[in-house]
Amino acid sequence: MIQYIKTSRLNIAYHNYGLNDAETIILIHGWPDDALTWKTIIPPLVNKNYRCITPFLRGCGLTHFLNAQTLRSGQLAALGQDLVEFITALNIGSVHLVGHDWGARIAYNTSALRPDLVNSLTALSVGYGTNNPNQKLSFTQVQQYWYQWFFATERGRETLAADRRGFTRQLWQLWCPGWHFHETEFETTAQSFDNQDWIDITIDSYRNRWGNSANDPDYDSIHNQLMNAPKINVPTTVLHGECDGATLPETSANKEQFFTKDYQRFVIPKVGHFMQREDPQTVITAILNRIQKV
Question: Are 84 and 243 in contact (CB under 8 A)?
Answer without folding.
Answer: no
